[in-house]
């Protein structure tokens, strides 16, 4: 189940990227299972810090930066009583361009968070996907920009840590019956190795690209 995998990613993230904080929360809603997993391993209480407007769609696929930032401004409100005066670990499922997380951090700080530590339940996205996922060009991805070297300062966070590629693969494959080969068809003895695509993270695509 996707929910279970996301939760395992959060647990692994807590092992790889712990921090001193008071509460753990999420950028709702897809990151919520990961935030719950992070809270379980870290021992920190989980609270909601953002109230989501369900009538605003996905912001990262908007065609320009201004529309994405306006979308974020409409999308979230701060639940101030849950975190004012506290250090917050905010778990997100990914950071693509890096310009939609900034308004969220600003919102939390203006509402009283003393620190905002961003923990990302996936590795940095460095390469486009040519298999149906709407990921922008390589040049647009924050992980390929000079700002990435100091991404915490760039987006206004106290700290930023990502899940490793190895940690992601471990979380995804945990619980899957392990075997190296399967028969492709009843009439063929050829076999292939099972695995998961990490092309947008590593640049190693499962098929050869034709330009």
Please, could you describe this protein's structure?
- It is a single chain.
- The chain is an alpha/beta fold and 211 residues long.
- The protein is built from 7 helices and 8 strands, in the order H-E-H-E-H-E-E-H-E-H-E-H-E-E-H.
- The longest helix has 15 residues, at 2-16.
- The protein is globular and about 55 Å long.
- Mean pLDDT is 85; it is low at 178-192.
Which CATH C-level class is it?
Alpha Beta
Known CATH architecture: 3-Layer(aba) Sandwich
Distance between the termini: 35 Å
Number of DSSP helical runs: 7
CATH topology: Rossmann fold
Number of domain units: 1
Which runs of at least 5 residues are low in confidence (pLDDT < 50)?
A: 178-192
The whole-number mean of residue pLDDT values reads 85
Instruction: State the shape.
Output: globular
Strands side by side in the biggest sheet:
1-4-5-6
Number of strands: 8
The percent of residues in helical segments reads 25-40%
What does the largest sheet look like? Answer: 4 strands, parallel
Structural class designation: alpha/beta
β-strand percent reads: 15-25%
């Amino acid at each position: 189940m996707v929910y279970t995998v996301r939760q395992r990613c959060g647990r692994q993230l807590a092992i790889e990227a712990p921090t001193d904080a008071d509460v753990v929360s999420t950028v709702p809603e897809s990151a919520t299972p990961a935030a719950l997993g992070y809270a379980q391993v870290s021992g920190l209480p989980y609270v909601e810090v953002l109230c989501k407007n369900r009538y605003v769609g996905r912001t990262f696929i908007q065609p320009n930066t201004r529309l994405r930032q306006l979308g974020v401004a409409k999308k979230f409100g701060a639940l101030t009583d849950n975190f004012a005066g506290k250090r917050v670990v905010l778990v997100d499922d990914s950071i693509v361009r890096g310009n939609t997380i900034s308004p969220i951090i600003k919102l939390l700080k203006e509402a009283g968070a003393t620190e905002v530590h961003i923990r990302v339940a996936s590795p940095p996205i460095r390469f486009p996907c040519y298999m149906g996922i709407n990921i922008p060009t390589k040049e647009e991805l924050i992980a390929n920009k000079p700002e990435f070297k100091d991404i915490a300062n760039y987006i206004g966070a106290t700290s930023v840590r990502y899940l490793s590629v190895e940690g992601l693969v471990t979380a995804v494959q945990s619980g899957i019956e392990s075997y190296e080969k399967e028969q492709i068809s009843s009439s063929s003895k050829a076999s292939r190795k099972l695995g998961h695509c990490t092309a947008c993270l590593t640049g190693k695509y499962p098929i050869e690209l034709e330009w």
